[in-house]
Amino acid sequence: MTSAGAGIPAQAPSNTAPPTALTIAGSDSGGGAGIQADLRTFFACGVHGMTAITAVTVQNSLGVSGFAELDAEVVTAQIGAVAGDIGVAAAKTGMLATAEIISAVASACDDVHIGRSGDAPLVVDPVAASMHGDSLLREEALEAVRSELFPRATVVTPNLDEVRLLTGVQVHSALQQRDAAIALHELGPAWVLVKGGHMRGDPKCVDLLYDGTEFVELSGPRFDAPNTHGGGDTLAAAITAALARGMPVPDAVAFGKRFIERAVAESYPLGKGIGPVSPFWRLAPER
Ligand code: PXL
């Protein structure tokens, strides 16, 4: 194998389809989070990415200044179109914006066998707000996340703000992180990943994985990085890509954790606000 320009090793042509993954999420015009983060992560993980767009945000590094959601039927139709022809090995949800879209996504996933009771695993990242605190989910939609989305999820990946909104549990300690995992698991997902990134006092970043039986602590370094836009999306997308490649959930989550650590370590400044995490390291491994 010879090396092509820009330090990227040339790949022998294979003409074989890579595994496929679907993201059901919102567009970030700034390119750091949402659909854009998911697609570039899928690409970096060697997975063919497909999209069901739920909403279009008007956004840059300084924040979200507005969004328009799509009709729920358009979201359903996108899921049906790709599942019916191309096939979905794994899927994830991000920004879903409204209760109506959540209900439509839940039924569409059932129809095409995505989720706990189907053939393709479903990662639910219960996106509620941007890093700047801009709301990305109407408040009345939280109940639909709990009752319609979580029972269908293979893995849910809330941060601590989302944990508080969904369960009322405030997490400041490892013990409370376990209480939160139990409360979330009671809502029906097969696995819960309670991310510890927002527990700022902790010198480590410990994420807790729970399947209703066993707690697994995934400990990693805490980076003091100013540019972490799209971090949650990138982690959930890397887990989804690993599931699409056939990894069992604990291995896929461990892969996602390693992926996001490198992506945070190589995050870059952009605009006048918060820059994005970067999945590019995986495309140029010799760096
Ligand atoms: O990172 C959460 C997120 C997800 N989806 C969209 C976003 C954001 C954060 O800003 O804009 C579209």
Could you explain the architecture of this structure?
The chain is of the alpha/beta class and 287 residues long. The protein has a single domain, classed as UDP-N-acetylmuramoyl-L-alanine:D-glutamate ligase. It contains eight helices and nine strands. A nine-stranded mixed sheet has the order 3-2-1-4-5-6-7-8-9, with helices on both faces. Helix 2 packs parallel to helix 3. The protein is globular, with a radius of gyration of 18 Å. The N terminus is likely disordered. The structure holds 3-hydroxy-5-(hydroxymethyl)-2-methylisonicotinaldehyde. 3-hydroxy-5-(hydroxymethyl)-2-methylisonicotinaldehyde binds next to strand 1, strand 2 and helix 7.
Any key phrases for this structure?
8 helices, binds 3-hydroxy-5-(hydroxymethyl)-2-methylisonicotinaldehyde, alpha/beta, UDP-N-acetylmuramoyl-L-alanine:D-glutamate ligase, globular, nine-stranded mixed beta sheet, 9 strands, 287 residues
